[in-house]
Structure formats: C-alpha cells, structure tokens
Amino acid sequence: MAGHTLRARWGQPVTGIVSFSVFFLIAWLTWFIFSDPRGPVAAFPYPFVMYLAMMILVGLWQHMFLADWPFQDLPQPARGIIETLVNLALVWLVIHVVFYRILGVGFNFFSQVNLEALAAAGQTAIPEVCGKTLTLQALTAPAARFGERAVVTFVLIGFFSYPFVTILFGKWPIRPSDLTQPQAGLAELGWCSLLTLFFFTILIVPFWGVVFGKVYGTSFGLNFPWWGGIAGTGHVHWVFGWWEWAIIILFMTPNVWRMKPWSVITLPQPWKGLISLVGTIFLGYILALICVKLAPAWLPMADVIQHLPAGDKLIPTRFLWYHAAEIAGFTLIPFLIWHHYFDDLAPQADKDAWGAFWFRTVGVLILCVLNYLFFYYANFGHWGLGNHHMAGGIGERAVGGESLIWNFWWIIPLLWNEWFFHKWPFYTSEH
Q: Fewest CB atoms less than 10 Å from the CB: which of 132, 223, 324, 359?
C-alpha cells in the first residue's frame, strides 16, 4: 500500500502478545480439525504435511513474486479472504494436476495416484528391470506415502530456491526492469523453478533412486545418494538437516537481521548475491553439524536408539541429521513473530545497529530452546497435538515428534495475516 504506514494498533509489546496468542489459538484449533489423530479429519502426518507445505510455497509465489496481483488494491479483509481461497485452489491444482497428472506422466515418484495404480495392478516390478514388487498396502502405509513425500521433498528445496533470488539477489536478473505484474512474477517463477529443479536433481533425486532402484528394484535409471561417505548416511535426512538451517539463515536475513550480515557487501549484483548465497549455505551446514554433534549431550541416546526404525540398524546418524532440521524449525515462530508483530524490538534506538542484531539473534536462540523444551520435555506434541508416538520417554518423543510439521503449520496464520491481510486487524494503516 504505497504511501501508507502500518502502526501497531495497541502499541508494543501488547500488539505482539495479542497477535501471538491469536495465531497460536488459530493454529492449534485448525491442527485439531485437520491433523490431530483425535480430531475429525486426523490426516497426520500425511497427506496433511504435503498440503501445508504446498500452501506456504504457493503463498510465497502469490506474495513475493506476484506482489498479491491481481488483488493488491482490494480492501481488507476481503483481499485476505480471496487470496486465501485462491491459495487453496492453487494448492489443489499444483498437487493433483501439475505433480500427479503432468509431471507424473514422466516421473511416477512424483505421483501418489500413479504409484497406487501400479501397485494395485501388480505392475510395480517389471521383471527384466526390477526384482521386487511394492504392494499397495506397503505404499499407502503412513510410513510410506512415497508420492506425497516426493512432493514434500520438492517443496523443501523450494522453500530456499524460490525466495533466495528475491532476498539475496534483489530479484536479479528479473529486476531492475520495466516489467509489470503478472509478467514480472511469472518471469521470476520460471527462473526460480529452473533453479529449484537444479537443486532438486542433485540433492533429492538420488534418494528416490535408492528407494525405487535398490530398496524396491534394481533400476539403473536413477542414481543413488552420493553423500553417504560425507554424512554417514545415504538418507535424504542429511539434506533436510543442513538445508533447513540454510532456510532459517535465509529468512532471518530480511527479518530480525534486517539484511545483516550481507549488507556489508558493497559489490553489485550478481556478485553480492553469489557471496551471500555461498555464505548462507555454509552457515546452514555448520549450524546443522553443530546440532548433530551436540544433540547427544542432552538426549538420552540409549533410549533414542531403542526407538529408531529398523532400517537405521541402531545407528542414530540419520535421526541426528533430521533432528538438526527440527531444531532449526523451532526458530521459525520466534524470529517471524519478533519481526512482523513485535517490530524488531531491541534495547537500542537504532534497530539496524549491530548491538540490536546480536540482541535479537541471541533472543531467537533462547526462544528456540524454550520452544524445544515446551514441545518435547513438556510434551506439548503429545497432549497438545495428539502425536501418539510421544506417549513415552524423551527418546521416543524425539524420534517420533515430527515437530517441523507443527512449526510450519503454526506460521501459516502469521504469514497469511502478514502477506494476504496486510496485518489486519492487528495493525492500522496511516498516510
């Protein structure tokens, strides 16, 4: 809204506290309706996680790429309601048409319906190529759902590969230009989709290669994970661990970091973006590695190992990389609410000062720890979210917690309110 300034309706920190409480209650109620095993739909973890992941990615396209076109001039709350309904329609279209029916024409691992049809017909194993058959019962088990999981792995890559062009490259090479919407947004969508396919091919496809080419057959069409010697596991959870931390670093940059530390780089684009990109991925990997090394210091590893899936063979490496991603996820709520609804509060008058940067950074990490303790040690994941895998001790809770799903679900009301509703009704718009 050009020429308008948003102001916290009740000042700070009251506006932040009220908005935080409202978003928590909305997330908790909708979780009970759609995901909680005790609720009416009980779609935990799949297909619930697939839909919520795609909702965020499509919302990013709507807001970050298309600048809310063509609804940007509608009054609130009509604009927010319409954009939310459009988001839901686009999510269904992207999953059930683009992935299942279009990309699924060539890549069955992208299509849950294709995989189920083949399994039901007993055609998963082609005798001259594959030696094993994936049954329909195994494919539709909660621990499988391979088509839905493949879509989620694409979205995981997209959480970084779509927004980093806007955040780190200032939309270069699409901007600066005289393109208007929707041409500018569609051009950026196309460019970032190419980058997403690049990262997806390198970091995700080899995992599905080992699933369909080794676990359930002997196909030579897809390569196997190349990172086993680096990570100590060939599972895609190695990618989850450091990629999720890279996502956190990426979004911390424009939020509570207010573009630090990359704002010190004075080079023009694309050099500034390239240096920032390498630095973001490097920091993400280092933070994930720190989590992998330190997590055994507070987790009862003997108990954890007893609850690992049989495929882990009592070796916790895969779990530790995934748990690193979960730890990263606990920063989402703190840094997003701090930036968007507490207005980057800091003791310093200059919110862009390095002192304010470190204050918010340390604060986010402390809140991350408290969030982690609340979910696992106070066991909110069990009594609050109904996760039956968390009925036992800390080891069982950590292995079956799935905290990333909750953390991403919680931020949807916050992002929708900020992106689509322009912070209505928590903020007022003034000339």
A: 132
284-311 pLDDT, tens per residue? Answer: 999 999 999 999 999 999 999 999 998 8
pLDDT in tens, 229-254: 999 999 999 999 999 999 999 999 99
Q: Are 186 and 148 in contact (CB under 8 A)?
A: no
What is the Cα 267 distance to its own chain's centre?
A: 30
Tell me the pLDDT tens digit for each residue of 29-72. Answer: 999 999 999 999 999 999 999 999 999 999 999 999 999 999 99
Q: Contact, 328 vs 248, CB < 8 A?
A: yes
| Cβ atoms < 10 Å from Cβ of 166 | 18
What is the widest separation between alpha-carbon atoms in the chain? 71
Global pTM reads: 0.95
| Residues written for the chain | 431
Q: How far, in Å, CA of 373 to CA of 203, rounded?
A: 31
Cis omega (within 30 of 0) for bond into 40 = no
Q: What CA–CA distance (Å, rounded) separates 280 from 311? A: 32
Helices (H), 253-400: 271-294, 301-306, 317-329, 332-340, 354-372, 380-383, 394-400
Q: Decide if 363 contacts 338 (C-beta within 8 A).
A: yes
3-class DSSP assignment, residue 6: strand
**Contact call for residues 5 and 429 (beta carbons, < 8 A):** yes
**In the chain, where are the structural domains located?**
1-34+227-431, 47-225
Task: Read off the tokens for 203.
Answer: 């970091």
* Under 8 Å between Cβ of 387 and 342: no
